[in-house]
Amino acid sequence: MEKHWCLTRCGLFERLAPEELSTLESRSRIRTFAAREPVYLPADASSAVYLLASGRVKVCHLTTDGKESILAFIQAGELFGELALLDAGERDEYVEAIEKATVVMIPASEMQRLMQAHADISLGITKIIGFRRRRIERRLKNLLFQSNRERLTHLLLDLAEDYGQPADEGILLGIKLSHQDLANVIGSTRETVTVILGQLRTEGLLQLGRQRIVIAQPERLARSVRRSAPQPARPFVQMMPSLSPT
């Protein structure tokens, strides 16, 4: 029942006939991972696509000097490991649970069959890949051409759009990240991130707690990097039905 609920919650599968959904369910597996436990590792075979049922995970890459670079955060209802649909070789990245997470593992061959049979699923997968590619490309440009403060500001605004929750003090980031996590996303150091967060708090732009960040003045923070103020959106999972043609 848990597996069935997880699959029906994903907008990509909402138009599947009951018998197709039953087949997908029978060929998938469900597993729970503890916080900091790897879901898959580099060099693992790209044989499955993953649906995050609950919790949060992060997609990471190890640099040549052994440092962690965070490529993306995945929240409940999202697919990840989707490049297995394009390349059946070994994984380049690894995925680790940020908190206790339940994952449905769908064979890549099964997803490919569904993509061939359903144009809306194929379009949805294409849009997911494109969305993530654009986000990574923007972060790469920031890494090459912007200061640590500008990169961190862009990241905070991105997180506000993806995970922001309206609060009396401003926009609360609904994802708990350490200073090291933030540094691993923007290609900086924990010490540098701590200093910049302190500066932003002193300037009245942020309110900080233990792994708690509130953007107190979102419009002013956005203007500092020539962006519009973030509009906290529904989680990506809730937008996934709109990936299908209407």
Task: Summarize the structure in words.
- It is globular and about 60 Å long.
- The protein has about 250 residues and is α+β, with helices and mostly antiparallel strands.
- Helix 3 (about 110-115) packs across helix 4 (about 120-145).
- The model is unreliable at about 235-245 (pLDDT under 50).
- About 40% of the residues lie in helices and about 25% in strands.
- The strands form 3 sheets. A 4-stranded antiparallel sheet has the order 1-8-3-6. Strands 2-7-4-5 form a 4-stranded antiparallel sheet.
- The protein folds into 2 domains: about 1-140, Sandwich (Jelly Rolls); about 150-225, Arc Repressor Mutant, subunit A.
Keywords:
Arc Repressor Mutant, subunit A, single chain, alpha+beta, Jelly Rolls, 9 helices, four-stranded antiparallel β-sheet, disordered C terminus, 246 residues
Please provide a brief summary of the model.
The protein has 246 residues and is α+β, with helices and mostly antiparallel strands. It contains nine helices and twelve strands.
Q: In the residues, how many domains can be counted?
A: 2
The neighbouring-strand order within the major sheet is 1-8-3-6
Helix content: 40-55%
CATH architecture of the largest domain: Sandwich
Mean pLDDT: 88
State the CATH superfamily name of the largest domain.
Jelly Rolls
Just give the CATH class of the largest domain.
Mainly Beta
| Structural class by sheet pairing and helices | alpha+beta
Please tell me what the overall shape is: globular
**Major sheet details:** 4 strands, antiparallel
Counting DSSP H or I runs of 4 or more residues, the number of helices is 9
Evaluate the radius of gyration: 19 Å
List the helices and strands in order: HHEEEEEEEEHHHEEHHEEHH
**Please, what is the oligomeric state?**
single chain
The percent range for strand residues is 15-25%
Distance from N terminus to C terminus (CA atoms, Å) equals 29 Å
How many strands in all?
Answer: 12
Which runs of at least 5 residues are low in confidence (pLDDT < 50)? 234-246
CATH T-level fold name of the largest domain: Jelly Rolls
